[in-house]
From TrEMBL:
It comes from Candidatus Bilophila faecipullorum. This is Phosphopantetheine adenylyltransferase. Keywords: ATP-binding, Coenzyme A biosynthesis, Cytoplasm, Magnesium, Nucleotide-binding, Nucleotidyltransferase, Transferase. One of its GO terms (cellular component) is cytoplasm. Homohexamer. CDD domains: PPAT. Its main location: cytoplasm. It catalyses: (R)-4'-phosphopantetheine + ATP + H(+) = 3'-dephospho-CoA + diphosphate. Residues 174-196 are annotated as: Disordered.
Protein backbone atom coordinates (compact mmCIF):
# COMPACT_ATOMS: atom_id res chain seq x y z
CA UNK A 1 0.00 0.00 0.00
CA UNK A 2 1.31 3.49 -0.80
CA UNK A 3 2.47 5.31 2.29
CA UNK A 4 1.19 8.73 3.11
CA UNK A 5 4.27 10.98 3.07
CA UNK A 6 2.43 13.82 4.68
CA UNK A 7 2.12 12.32 8.13
CA UNK A 8 4.94 12.59 10.66
CA UNK A 9 4.93 10.54 13.81
CA UNK A 10 6.53 12.32 16.77
CA UNK A 11 7.16 9.70 19.44
CA UNK A 12 8.23 10.39 22.99
CA UNK A 13 7.47 10.06 26.65
CA UNK A 14 6.13 13.62 26.96
CA UNK A 15 6.29 13.46 30.75
CA UNK A 16 5.20 16.21 30.42
CA UNK A 17 4.96 18.03 27.09
CA UNK A 18 7.25 21.11 27.06
CA UNK A 19 7.45 24.15 24.81
CA UNK A 20 10.48 22.50 23.19
CA UNK A 21 8.23 19.66 22.03
CA UNK A 22 5.51 22.12 20.96
CA UNK A 23 8.06 24.04 18.87
CA UNK A 24 9.21 20.88 17.05
CA UNK A 25 5.58 19.89 16.35
CA UNK A 26 4.59 23.30 14.98
CA UNK A 27 7.69 23.56 12.80
CA UNK A 28 7.09 20.07 11.43
CA UNK A 29 3.70 21.26 10.21
CA UNK A 30 5.53 23.35 7.62
CA UNK A 31 6.72 20.07 6.13
CA UNK A 32 3.83 17.72 6.87
CA UNK A 33 0.06 17.92 6.69
CA UNK A 34 -0.39 16.16 9.98
CA UNK A 35 1.74 15.37 13.03
CA UNK A 36 0.76 12.49 15.27
CA UNK A 37 2.17 12.96 18.75
CA UNK A 38 2.70 9.36 19.80
CA UNK A 39 2.88 9.07 23.57
CA UNK A 40 4.85 6.01 24.61
CA UNK A 41 3.34 3.57 27.08
CA UNK A 42 6.65 1.72 27.42
CA UNK A 43 9.11 4.33 28.59
CA UNK A 44 11.78 2.39 30.47
CA UNK A 45 11.46 5.10 33.14
CA UNK A 46 8.89 5.63 35.87
CA UNK A 47 6.89 8.58 34.59
CA UNK A 48 5.49 11.29 36.85
CA UNK A 49 2.26 11.32 34.85
CA UNK A 50 0.38 8.20 33.79
CA UNK A 51 -0.05 7.40 30.13
CA UNK A 52 -3.62 8.73 30.21
CA UNK A 53 -2.53 11.93 31.90
CA UNK A 54 0.30 12.51 29.39
CA UNK A 55 -2.08 11.96 26.47
CA UNK A 56 -4.78 14.09 28.05
CA UNK A 57 -2.42 17.03 28.74
CA UNK A 58 -1.14 17.04 25.15
CA UNK A 59 -4.67 16.70 23.76
CA UNK A 60 -5.78 19.73 25.72
CA UNK A 61 -2.82 21.77 24.48
CA UNK A 62 -3.60 20.96 20.83
CA UNK A 63 -7.38 20.83 21.16
CA UNK A 64 -7.94 23.51 18.54
CA UNK A 65 -5.39 22.23 16.02
CA UNK A 66 -6.90 19.56 13.80
CA UNK A 67 -3.56 18.82 12.10
CA UNK A 68 -2.06 17.68 15.42
CA UNK A 69 -3.34 14.38 16.77
CA UNK A 70 -2.31 12.83 20.07
CA UNK A 71 -2.34 9.06 20.54
CA UNK A 72 -0.89 6.56 22.97
CA UNK A 73 1.19 3.77 21.53
CA UNK A 74 2.67 0.56 22.83
CA UNK A 75 5.24 -1.83 21.45
CA UNK A 76 7.66 -1.31 18.59
CA UNK A 77 7.63 2.22 17.22
CA UNK A 78 8.17 1.11 13.62
CA UNK A 79 5.15 -1.19 13.77
CA UNK A 80 3.05 1.65 15.09
CA UNK A 81 4.33 4.00 12.34
CA UNK A 82 3.46 1.42 9.68
CA UNK A 83 0.02 0.93 11.24
CA UNK A 84 -0.62 4.64 10.68
CA UNK A 85 0.48 4.30 7.06
CA UNK A 86 3.23 6.83 7.74
CA UNK A 87 6.84 6.92 6.64
CA UNK A 88 8.51 9.47 8.87
CA UNK A 89 9.55 9.44 12.50
CA UNK A 90 10.19 12.94 13.79
CA UNK A 91 12.68 13.61 16.58
CA UNK A 92 14.22 16.71 18.10
CA UNK A 93 17.92 17.29 18.76
CA UNK A 94 19.09 19.64 21.46
CA UNK A 95 22.76 18.94 21.90
CA UNK A 96 25.50 16.51 21.04
CA UNK A 97 24.40 14.53 24.07
CA UNK A 98 21.11 13.66 22.31
CA UNK A 99 22.90 12.61 19.18
CA UNK A 100 24.44 9.29 20.19
CA UNK A 101 21.19 7.88 21.52
CA UNK A 102 19.13 9.15 18.60
CA UNK A 103 21.68 7.87 16.11
CA UNK A 104 21.54 4.37 17.59
CA UNK A 105 17.74 4.24 17.76
CA UNK A 106 17.29 5.55 14.23
CA UNK A 107 19.71 2.98 12.81
CA UNK A 108 17.94 0.22 14.71
CA UNK A 109 14.60 1.42 13.41
CA UNK A 110 15.99 1.46 9.89
CA UNK A 111 17.20 -2.12 10.33
CA UNK A 112 13.73 -3.14 11.48
CA UNK A 113 11.88 -1.19 8.75
CA UNK A 114 14.09 0.24 5.97
CA UNK A 115 11.09 2.02 4.45
CA UNK A 116 10.68 4.29 7.48
CA UNK A 117 12.90 7.38 7.77
CA UNK A 118 13.80 9.37 10.85
CA UNK A 119 13.83 13.13 10.44
CA UNK A 120 15.59 15.33 13.00
CA UNK A 121 14.74 18.93 13.64
CA UNK A 122 17.25 20.95 15.63
CA UNK A 123 15.70 22.48 18.74
CA UNK A 124 15.10 26.19 18.61
CA UNK A 125 17.77 28.00 20.66
CA UNK A 126 15.08 29.18 23.12
CA UNK A 127 14.35 25.61 24.16
CA UNK A 128 17.81 24.09 23.93
CA UNK A 129 18.17 23.75 27.69
CA UNK A 130 14.65 22.46 28.31
CA UNK A 131 13.89 18.84 29.03
CA UNK A 132 10.89 17.27 30.71
CA UNK A 133 13.26 16.12 33.44
CA UNK A 134 14.64 19.55 34.34
CA UNK A 135 11.16 21.07 34.20
CA UNK A 136 9.88 18.42 36.64
CA UNK A 137 12.82 18.93 38.98
CA UNK A 138 12.29 22.68 39.15
CA UNK A 139 8.49 22.36 39.42
CA UNK A 140 8.83 19.80 42.23
CA UNK A 141 10.61 22.48 44.28
CA UNK A 142 8.00 25.13 43.55
CA UNK A 143 10.07 26.91 40.88
CA UNK A 144 8.40 28.95 38.16
CA UNK A 145 8.37 26.99 34.89
CA UNK A 146 5.80 29.23 33.22
CA UNK A 147 6.82 29.94 29.66
CA UNK A 148 8.75 26.68 29.46
CA UNK A 149 5.65 24.49 29.28
CA UNK A 150 2.12 25.16 28.02
CA UNK A 151 -0.09 26.84 30.66
CA UNK A 152 -2.19 23.72 31.12
CA UNK A 153 0.92 21.62 31.77
CA UNK A 154 2.12 24.22 34.25
CA UNK A 155 -1.19 23.89 36.15
CA UNK A 156 -0.86 20.09 36.13
CA UNK A 157 2.70 20.26 37.48
CA UNK A 158 1.66 22.62 40.29
CA UNK A 159 -1.18 20.31 41.25
CA UNK A 160 0.91 17.15 41.02
CA UNK A 161 3.51 18.57 43.39
CA UNK A 162 0.89 19.88 45.79
CA UNK A 163 1.36 23.61 45.17
CA UNK A 164 -1.39 26.22 45.00
CA UNK A 165 -2.61 27.10 41.52
CA UNK A 166 -1.34 30.44 40.22
CA UNK A 167 -2.65 32.58 37.38
CA UNK A 168 -0.65 33.20 34.23
CA UNK A 169 0.49 36.68 35.37
CA UNK A 170 0.40 36.12 39.13
CA UNK A 171 3.71 36.13 41.00
CA UNK A 172 4.66 32.86 42.62
CA UNK A 173 5.13 33.27 46.34
CA UNK A 174 8.37 31.77 47.62
CA UNK A 175 7.92 28.70 49.79
CA UNK A 176 7.61 29.68 53.47
CA UNK A 177 10.41 27.33 54.45
CA UNK A 178 12.64 24.93 52.59
CA UNK A 179 10.71 21.81 51.68
CA UNK A 180 11.76 18.86 53.80
CA UNK A 181 12.61 15.61 52.09
CA UNK A 182 9.37 13.91 51.14
CA UNK A 183 7.43 17.19 51.10
CA UNK A 184 5.30 18.43 49.51
CA UNK A 185 3.45 15.14 49.36
CA UNK A 186 2.53 14.59 45.72
CA UNK A 187 0.06 11.90 46.71
CA UNK A 188 -2.05 14.28 48.81
CA UNK A 189 -2.06 17.57 46.93
CA UNK A 190 -3.88 19.98 49.25
CA UNK A 191 -7.31 18.39 48.88
CA UNK A 192 -8.12 20.79 46.03
CA UNK A 193 -9.76 19.75 42.83
CA UNK A 194 -7.08 18.59 40.41
CA UNK A 195 -6.86 20.21 36.96
CA UNK A 196 -5.38 17.03 35.48
P1 LIG B 1 12.07 10.29 24.90
O1 LIG B 1 11.88 9.78 26.28
O2 LIG B 1 11.65 9.33 23.82
O3 LIG B 1 13.40 10.93 24.60
P2 LIG B 1 10.94 12.90 25.21
O4 LIG B 1 9.51 13.15 25.52
O5 LIG B 1 11.93 13.23 26.27
O6 LIG B 1 10.98 11.41 24.76
O7 LIG B 1 11.35 13.66 23.89
C1 LIG B 1 10.72 13.41 22.65
C2 LIG B 1 11.55 14.03 21.55
O8 LIG B 1 11.60 15.43 21.72
C3 LIG B 1 13.00 13.58 21.49
O9 LIG B 1 13.42 13.53 20.14
C4 LIG B 1 13.74 14.68 22.22
O10 LIG B 1 15.09 14.78 21.79
C5 LIG B 1 12.93 15.87 21.75
N1 LIG B 1 13.02 17.00 22.68
C6 LIG B 1 12.94 16.98 24.02
N2 LIG B 1 13.06 18.22 24.53
C7 LIG B 1 13.22 19.06 23.47
C8 LIG B 1 13.44 20.47 23.33
N3 LIG B 1 13.56 21.26 24.40
N4 LIG B 1 13.55 20.98 22.09
C9 LIG B 1 13.47 20.16 21.02
N5 LIG B 1 13.31 18.83 21.07
C10 LIG B 1 13.18 18.28 22.28
Amino acid sequence: MAQDKRIAIYPGTFDPLTNGHVNIIRRALRLFDKVIVAVAADTGKTPLFSLNERVDMAEKVFARESDIVVEPFQGLLVDYVASRNAQTVLRGLRAVSDFEYEFQISLMNRKLRPDIETLFLIADYRWLYISSTIVKTVASLGGDVRGLVPDHVFACLRARFGFDPVGVDEPIAPLPSPALPGQPDASAPNGREQPC
